[in-house]
Amino acid sequence: MRMPEFWTDRKVCVTGGAGFLGRAVCARLAAAGANRVFVPRSSEYNLTQADDVQRMLADASPDVIIHLAAEVGGIAANRERPGRFFYANMAMGLHLIESAREQGVEKFVQVGTVCAYPKACPVPFREDDLHCGYPEATNAPYGIAKRALGVMIDAYRREYDFPGIYLIPVNLYGPGDNPDLHTSHVIPALIRKCSTAAAEGASRVSCWGSGTVSREFLFVDDAAEAIVLAAERHDDPAPINLGTGAEITIKHLAGKIARLCGFSGEFQWDPSYPDGQPRRRLDTARAAERLGWRARVSLDEGLARTVAWWKANGSAAPD
Asked: Which domains can be identified in the chain, with CATH numbers?
């Protein structure tokens, strides 16, 4: 059962609301009845700075904060900017949680990352194993920063009864995703490469790594639905995984995308580049039990919708 009355007259602040996931969350909020949504823009508020966070919250005066803003990228970006990714993500969450506590918000939703899980985490990843080891090295600074914010949510609940919750989505994808080959994740990068190769009649597409590692992917609209449901229903700092519970190797994924894009050539895998974490698959039982939520969009359907979007909008998509 939805609770549309939950959003009636509540003021909601969605950091990162103009981004890929943020746009989907704002659309879901509107569908749920939220009509007082504030989206801070980076040109007006630098959320890594405490003064700007306090000014933003004074302007928005939110009842609910959904914190999606992040600095993130693929393996290449994480390798080049580990310090920045740690600082920016840690600072934004740190200042937002503390200022939200001071203002007495009714609910704070912290969205984490699957990158926070240990590199050698048993599969499927269970929430209770989150702190049982160090993350995979290529994105550890980003993952640790996001993991630390989950610890902060829990600590603030125990000391201040702070109404924070912590969600851990797997890799997201869907229409509107970042297509920049330097900063994007694997699905938009493969779609762009395969579409370009098909259009140019190229016989090969080059890819990082061995292609043998596995990943789990969640369609962005499914993630948005889970986040809004969690804001309505969940009132516990214990983390909740958000995913499909299904994994696929990158080679198999590349084959699916190639067929959708009309690319019939070969993939040239370069194992001199890092693969990242060997496997990723989440245990999603807690989300089903506590939120009554399960992902609806299959990978095949989601990829088809994403490729269709790229074919219609790719040349105009921002880099």
From this structure: 4-171+219-245+282-296 (3.40.50.720)
CA dist list (Å): 91 to 84, 95, 152, 231:
10, 6, 12, 23
> Do you find a cis peptide bond into 124, omega within 30 degrees of 0?
yes
**Grouped pLDDT means (10 residues each) for the chain, 319 residues:** 76 97 98 96 97 98 97 80 95 98 98 96 98 94 97 98 98 90 82 95 93 97 98 96 97 98 96 87 98 97 97 67
Q: What pLDDT is attached to residue 1?
A: 47
pLDDT at 315: 54
Residues 315 and 309 sit within 8 Å (Cβ to Cβ): no
CA torsion angle for 310, 299, 222, 315 (degrees, to 10)? Answer: -10
- The amino acid present at 147, given as its one-letter code, is R
What sign has the CA pseudo-torsion 303, 240, 90, 67? positive
Residue 39 structure tokens:
């989206």
CA distances from 290 to 230, 236, 277, 287 (A): 9, 10, 28, 5
- What is the strand order of the sheet 12-15 is part of? 37-38, 12-15, 64-67, 107-111, 164-169, 240-242
pTM score: 0.94
Measured CA to CA in angstroms, residue 100 lies from 61, 91, 104, 134 at distances of 10, 14, 6, 29
Q: Which of 117, 142, 156, 166 is catalytic?
A: 142
Instruction: Give the pLDDT of residue 178.
Output: 82
- Is there a catalytic annotation at residue 134? no
Report which secondary-structure segment, H or E, holds 193.
Answer: helix 186-200
List Cα–Cα distances, 295 to 164, 173, 244, 251, 254, in angstroms.
Answer: 23, 13, 6, 23, 22
